[in-house]
Each structure stands twice: as structure tokens, then as C-alpha cells.
Amino acid sequence: MEGIIVLLVWLIPRPEPFGWLHLLFIFLTFAISALLIKRAFHHQSKPVKKVLLFIGVFTLLIEIVEQVYILHHFSYYSFNDFPLHYCSMIIYASLIAGLTKNKKVEERLTDFIALFITLPGIAVMLFPGGVFSTHALLSLHTMLWHSAMVIGSLYVLLTRKIERPWLRFLQTSGWFFLLCCI
User: Which of 15, 50, 161, 176 is the most buried (most CB within 10 A)?
Assistant: First the structure.
């Protein structure tokens, strides 16, 4: 256990875009997405709720680890680190969609994830810009986070038939604006 903690607090040179860490996560993200989607197309019932619930719990847990790390290792707390920005919407949307019994709420949130989360997740994975850190845990967190965004949103996008996408886009825009106000 102590070895894992030492690795997590390890300071590293800032990973480069398209360096080994970035390429590894691009490969893993699209490989896991492809396997999950292929498996879903071979089953009659597509476990969208289960996948979203898993993504929601996973992102919540890694966010808690990141927040504890930030609070412990930095002398200040920047609210830019608080999970209330665009990429954090995957936590809230997938947890609510995975747990709700209300079919209309579930449908709107899964449409929201497919229509509003896919592109930003892919964009950060392909063009990471300044998301890497000299802290190994924070760089690992950002790659796991954006990989989860891509895997969950691609799964929803490709396994659910979104009827009348323009209408759905307008209907799910309400969730987008609501989550932006949080």
C-alpha cells in the first residue's frame, strides 16, 4: 500500500501531448469503447443504466481521491479544482441517469450525455493542451476522467437510437444550462 501512495505523490516531468502516457490512454479508451459497444450490440438488452452508473461511481471516486490529494498537497485551494465545471457534468448526469426510476429523466440525461459529453471528451483526449501536471496523480486522474467521459458517452451515443436529434438537442439543452448553473 505504501508503494502505491509513493507512486501517487510522485512528481514527474509534465507528460507531453502524444507522449507515451497520452497515447496509452487514447488506445485504452478507444479499445474499451469498442469492446463495450461490440458486446452491447450482441445483447438484446443494452445495459445503459449499469454502464452509466459505473461511470458515475468511478468518476465520483477518482474525483474524491483528487480532491483529497489537492487539499493535502497544496497550501491553497483553487475553486477551479472543485468539480463544478463542464467535464464534471459526467458525474452528476451519469449518476442521476443510472439511479433514477423516472424514464423521462433517464432518457433526457442519456441524450444529454450522448449529445453534450462525447465531443468535449474526445477533444480533450485528442488535444490535451494544458491538462497534464507534474503531479503523477493529477495527470493520471485527467486521463482516467476524460477516458470515462469518452467511453460512457460513446456507449450511449452508439447503442441508443436518438430519435429526432435536433428536438432532443433542444430538450436536453435544459439539463446543460441547469448543470452550468450549479
Answer: 15
Share of the chain above pLDDT 70, in %: 80
Instruction: Output the DSSP codes for the chain.
Output: -HHHHHHHT-B-PPPPTTSHHHHHHHHHHHHHHHHHHHHHHTSSS--HHHHHHHHHHHHHHHHHHHHHHHHHH-SS--TTSSS-SGGGHHHHHHHHHHH---HHHHHHHHHHIIIIIHHHHHHHHH--TT---SBHHHHHHHHHHHHHHHHHHHHHHHHS--SSHHHHHHHHHHHHHHHHH-
Given this model, what pLDDT does residue 28 score? 95
The strand pairing partners of 151, in sequence order, are none
How many Cβ atoms from other residues are within 10 Å of residue 3's Cβ?
7
- Reading the block at residue 76, the C-alpha cell is 491553497
